[in-house]
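Lab notebook, bench 4. The sequencing result for the construct came back, and we need a structural model before the next group meeting so we can plan mutations. Quick request posted to the team channel:

Model the 3D structure of this chain.
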Amino acid sequence: MVEKDDKEAFGEQWVDDVVAKAVERSLENSPEFSPTDTENDCGTDEEVPYQASSVENQDYIAEEDAAEAERMSLSSPYPDEDFSNNVEEDGGEQQGKKSMKSFLEWGAVILGALLVAFLIKTFLMQAYYIPSSSMTPTLQVGDRVLVNKLSYKVGDIGRGDLVVFKRPSNEDVGDTDLIKRVIGLEGELIEIIDGRIYITESGSSIRQLLVEPYLSSSTATELPNGFEDVASCEVATETSCLIPDNYVFVLGDNRAGSRDSRFFGPIEEEMVVGRAFIRLWPISSLKFL
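Done. Here's the predicted structure in token form:
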């Protein structure tokens, strides 16, 4: 028993020596450990400083560059000048120029419109208000008609036309233009017999009754005292008038309530302003004349 125990003790001692030598040799051959700033043992509590990713760094740098560019744009290259004030002054100046340009443009538009309206009224068209009943039933009081001033610049006056003309000098009642219907033309002999009108055309000896469908059925062209003024007639009697060249004989459709060529004689064609060709007002009575 004694011998067996000694062998077991010797075996254990030998094993311990082998293990100790293996550990010692392992430690001698292992490299020295020296941690760096970017490495950290997962088993320690030491904190590693945060470093942004490359994308975040790029965004941050871009924001700094933009801010720096803005500061540079607002700063003057010359130390004695306030560039920001100059920018505001330039902006105000530009705004003032735009306002002036807009004002001039609108002024030109308004002036052009007024000029066009003036030219139209003077040479082309003009609206007239009917103040009396001398042209009933064709035109009523308050009607408005449009007069073409070019009609007789390119054409001749015709029988039955509604013409606007300047008031004759021998007609001292009122000072407005008149509107009447053309009944007789130059060179014609006009006669009023028993309330009817007869026309003898120039170069003819045939007397013809004038048919007037625009009159009411009861209208009669009466001349109780004959023609009142025959000074402008080439040949005249109490009931007849020979119309001279470049003159026309005009009457109102309301023969009992109109002062016309029966009172002031034929009128010169030069006095005619134009031909009334359409009734504009009232809208319900809009029609060509």
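Confidence is low (pLDDT under 50) at residues 1-5, 33-57, 74-81.
Will bring this to the meeting.
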